[in-house]
Design a protein that fits this description.
mainly alpha, two-stranded antiparallel ribbon
């Protein structure tokens, strides 16, 4: 709060504005510095900052553990450590529960903080492991979960504490409560009403996919009336009785049908089977002689299937440090030797890339301005063709 004395208040206001201005200049110059770095240098710098950040988080959690032992938050006038973190330290509500979960066990298992500080595990992973750690399993658990994602660790911890398996059901979502308006008042909870725990982990809907057992997952999602009608009709078409009780069986059969029709791997398997049955080994129509320019970018479906198989149905792009892109959906056929330059459609120069890396490669070869212009021209052409 600024001083009540006008001159002092004025001076403090000027000081505050000056500090903000200096910080803006610092970050502006920092952006200029970053622009001079290569992509690999930018990546290395970000890695170092993550290491510093995780070390700071680990030290903060150690502070919270000591504060919890001393009941510092209560002594400072806050009703809990949770409220101290939010109101005293200005941490976001979503960031606090994970820190408190780890703080609760960090004195018993300081190796949890070491793994976090060394970036072997994330804060989210540390919070997921915290309730399940014992003297016997802590080292193995940290080793097994190093570098794993939240989803992978959720599947790992069900080995310690399996979750209930959902009973299949279809329910109508209850109507939302009408908001309070003029003449309406929202009843305030009575002092005797139990309050939720201060370290509630989330305030949003649970994940739609959670591991319940080692080989069983719980799914949770909503669908409209049209989805419900289609689902029940699908059960009839598949000849599965009691649609609600056999939801997993019906959806799995629908997935099998969709994959059989759309999955490039399945298409290739069917083609190979047909070729073996026909004892056809000639592929003379699938290739274009390298000495002759290709007449179009068209790639035969059987060639596309083999290219997908060669890439293991995953984007083959690798970053500067060798990291491979993990995208496995909406993959596109790309020419390693740009078609616009070489007019070569030979299978050996084809690869699969995700849309983002396909665009990145096009910008690298032809320039970002050229690609943006081509995209704009294509969109204008589509809009003209749609107009009456």
């Amino acid at each position: 709060m600024l001083s009540r004395h006008p001159r002092v208040a004025e001076n403090m206001g000027v000081y505050f504005i000056t500090e903000v201005g200096m910080m803006i200049e610092q970050f502006a110059s920092y952006f200029t510095k970053l622009e001079r770095l290569s992509s690999l240098e930018l990546h290395r710098s970000a890695e170092k900052l993550v290491l510093v950040e995780n070390t700071s988080i680990a030290k903060l959690i150690a502070h919270l553990a000591e504060m919890s032992a001393r009941k510092t938050a209560l002594k400072l006038g806050y009703k809990s450590l949770y409220h101290y973190c939010i109101n005293g330290l200005n941490l976001s509500e979503g960031a606090v529960p994970a820190r408190i979960h780890v703080a609760n066990v960090s004195r018993r298992f300081p190796q949890l903080l070491v793994a976090l500080a060394e970036s072997r595990i994330s804060l989210t992973v540390a919070a997921l492991l915290a309730p399940h750690l014992t003297e016997e399993n802590v080292d193995d658990a940290l080793s097994d979960c190093a570098g794993k994602t939240r989803r992978e660790v959720e599947e790992y911890v069900v080995l310690f504490r399996p979750k209930p398996v959902f009973e299949p059901s279809i329910r109508k979502r209850p109507a939302h409560l009408a908001p309070a308006g003029p003449g309406r008042s929202t009843p305030s909870p009575s002092p005797s009403t139990p309050q939720p725990p201060t370290v509630q982990t989330t305030r949003h809907s649970p994940n739609i996919l959670q591991a319940a057992r080692a080989e069983i997952y719980n799914f949770r999602f909503s669908g409209g009336r049209e989805f419900k009608d289609k689902f029940e009709r699908l059960a009839e078409v598949l000849g599965v009785g009691n649609a609600q009780k056999n939801m997993a069986e019906i959806i799995e059969k629908a997935l099998d049908i969709a994959l059989e029709k759309k999955d490039p791997k399945k298409k290739l398997e069917r083609r190979i089977k047909r070729q073996r049955c026909a004892k056809t080994k000639s592929r003379s129509n699938e290739f274009v002689k390298k000495s002759e320019p290709a007449k179009s970018r068209y790639v035969a479906s059987e060639v596309s299937e083999r290219v997908h198989e060669r890439g293991a149905y995953q984007c083959v792009f690798r970053g500067l440090d060798g990291t491979r892109c993990t995208a496995r959906t909406a993959l596109q056929i790309d020419h390693a030797d740009p078609y616009g330059i070489f007019q070569n459609n030979d299978e050996s120069v084809l690869r699969i890339l995700c849309a983002s890396h396909n665009l990145l490669e096009a910008e690298r070869v032809y320039g970002a301005d050229f690609i943006r212009r081509k995209i704009s021209e294509r969109r204008r052409g589509k809009s003209k063709s749609r107009s009456p």
